[in-house]
Amino acid sequence: MSDQQPVDVCAAEEIEDGGMRTVPARETGWSDAITIFRDGDAYYALDDTCPHEKASLGEGWLENGEIECPVHQSRFSVATGAVACPPALRNARAHRVEVLGGRVVLSPGRLPGDVG
């Protein structure tokens, strides 16, 4: 992933508090779509594909800092990608998100401690 460049996704206010936005791979040039989550002033990003059953996490349910997969109800921390509830056994890959000049910018790579 190190050769992938940061991507300007959208204006920060376009993702409402408690909301999410899935960015297709064709828009980032990355290998997977990425879903960005907003919790207050914090933004988080995970690979969109659930590591358990290949479903779109962006079609899941976001609650209390976790995203629930719509297929088998595995839950993942949006901050780290860590499995919060099985049946998934592998973490989702987390990415860095920054708000720069009012824009949401997505950067490739794993967060410290991410083993997904």
How would you describe this structure to a colleague?
- It comes from Mangrovactinospora gilvigrisea.
- By secondary structure, the chain is mainly beta.
- It has one domain (7-107): Rieske [2Fe-2S] iron-sulphur domain (Rieske Iron-sulfur Protein, 3-layer Sandwich), CATH 2.102.10.
- It has one helix at residues 25-28, and strands at residues 7-11, 20-23, 34-39, 42-47, 61-63, 66-68, 75-77, 83-85, 94-100, 103-107.
- Strands 1-10-9-4-3-2 form a 6-stranded antiparallel beta sheet. Strands 5-6-7-8 form a 4-stranded antiparallel beta sheet, with no helix packed on it.
- The longest helix has 4 residues, at 25-28.
List the helices and strands and how they pair.
Blueprint: E1 7-11, E2 20-23, H1 25-28, E3 34-39, E4 42-47, E5 61-63, E6 66-68, E7 75-77, E8 83-85, E9 94-100, E10 103-107
Antiparallel strand pairs: 1-10, 2-3, 3-4, 4-9, 5-6, 6-7, 7-8, 9-10
GO molecular function: 2 iron, 2 sulfur cluster binding; metal ion binding; monooxygenase activity; oxidoreductase activity, acting on paired donors, with incorporation or reduction of molecular oxygen
Domain Rieske: 7-106
Protein name: 2Fe-2S ferredoxin
Give the strand line-up of the largest sheet. 1-10-9-4-3-2
**Assembly of the depicted chains:** single chain
Please report the total strand number as a whole number: 10
- What is the total domain count? 1
For the record, the CATH class is Mainly Beta
Number of helices: 1
What gross morphology would you assign? globular
What structural category arises from helix and sheet content? mainly beta
Fraction of helical residues: under 10%
Uncertain regions spanning at least 5 consecutive residues: 111-116
Averaged pLDDT, please?
Answer: 87
Predict the CATH topology: Rieske Iron-sulfur Protein
Order of helices and strands: EEHEEEEEEEE
**Beta-strand content bin:** 35-45%
Biggest sheet overview: 6 strands, antiparallel
Radius of gyration using CA atoms only: 13 Å
